[in-house]
Design brief:
8 helices, alpha/beta, 8 strands, globular, Arginase, Chain A, two-stranded antiparallel ribbon
Amino acid sequence: MEQLTAVHPAGYVDEIRSVSESGGGALDPDTITSAGSYEAALHAAGGACALVDALLGGEAGVGFSALRPPGHHAEPRVAMGFCLFNNVAVAAQHALDAHGLERVFILDWDVHHGNGTNDVFHGSREVLFASIHQMPLYPGTGRLHDVGEGAGEGYSLNLPVPPGSGEDVWLAMVEHVALPAARTYRPQLVLVSAGFDAHRDDPLATCELTAESFAALARQVRALADELGVPVGGVLEGGYDLRALATSTAATLEALRDGGEPEPAPPHPLAARAADAIGRYWPLSLTS
């Protein structure tokens, strides 16, 4: 409970528990709970925290928490988008509170904007948050000009891509925008909100990634973690075509495990446009 309430108010946690214990119901048109939802959500958030404990306790240098429900849409006081508790935010806050970290990098490559994670750390420098997501698409947030607020201005990197975007755009956004900023930030832990609904077969979006695209993204992230000498872990988010989800998750696990030199991603005009905006806060060489 201490881990959960570092992100979600106790009253909100009680509300989710109460709805579940009463048999479940609709929290919004997309987010339906059953009698087992509260326990499942506890396990999903707890698994993400256990991942952090294993990574920071020296048990492993690489890991993955393959649990659901997903979490990145859950705001501190609002369940939405199939998400009850924000698993990756709870895990990142746990790394800060229980392990004494000062800097965590979260890369969200789910096709939907990680609005909840963005909100949790919007005013914080303790987490550098980067989200690559299709726009327009649910939940309608995550515009390029949303860079955080107050002390956290510049620490939210929202990188929208248009429908139909393929791995050339996604890989360029990671290599030329998200990772250079993270390299300067020098996180002590790298976490990935690993959704797989940008796959070309997914029914909820229209991007064109494949299982190998996700493996390429994972190799980029693993290379960053190796360069910085820090652990890296993934937390499962979306993905709604079961075959695409299975093959993409497996490819990501293998790439995170094996590492290796990632193939360079050619510059892309969309990444250059993003770099122009983000370059006010981080030294990025790619320009339009």
